[in-house]
Amino acid sequence: MSEDNLFIFVIEVLGTIAFAISGIRLAAAKSFDWFGAYIVGLVTAIGGGTLRDLLLGIPVFWMQSWMYLAVTFLSLVTVIVFRKALVKGMRTLFIFDAIGLALFVVVGIEKSFVAGFPAWVAIAMGIITGSFGGVTRDILINEEPLFFRKDIYATACLAGGLVYWLMMLIPDASPLVPQICCAVTVVGLRVLAVHYNWSLPLLKVDPKDLPEQ
Known about the structure:
Elements: H1 3-29, H2 34-56, H3 67-81, H4 83-87, H5 90-114, H6 119-140, H7 154-168, H8 176-196
């Protein structure tokens, strides 16, 4: 495995752990059984990357190694053992979700560039990689997907992707610079949005303007 591929693999595993814990934590709050919680955690962790790889026309990442299934299982064990600390309160969920989001945006962008796609495709794949697993998770647990709410979520992915692209324009910059700046941007925007209650405008329609059924 080349150095670049090893780096992507490590980030992908770390992102899988973070997203799996966030998904399993939500499933535990909904009183899912252990198998149901594992499935929710797995879908959260691999959903975005699966769609990304299918769109890019490359081998689906989790089918190349059993590691992703294993670390999801270890995430389940972690939540079972430390369930009181991990299930209690929304802050824990937010931390793992923000970390997973940032890491997967970086992975989505990196894989797109490695596959030879331009920057605008890479940014779109970063958004998909970071957010689609969470959308599927929320659907499975019967929650309105966070992606479609007024919360700063997909916008944070987009901002991170743009920062990644801008950092690439710096001459002789280390490859780590765009990656770190992208991840920091995603996490930073998520933290600031929650702290200051930032949100996007809602698309509202006056009920009186709707046609009668």
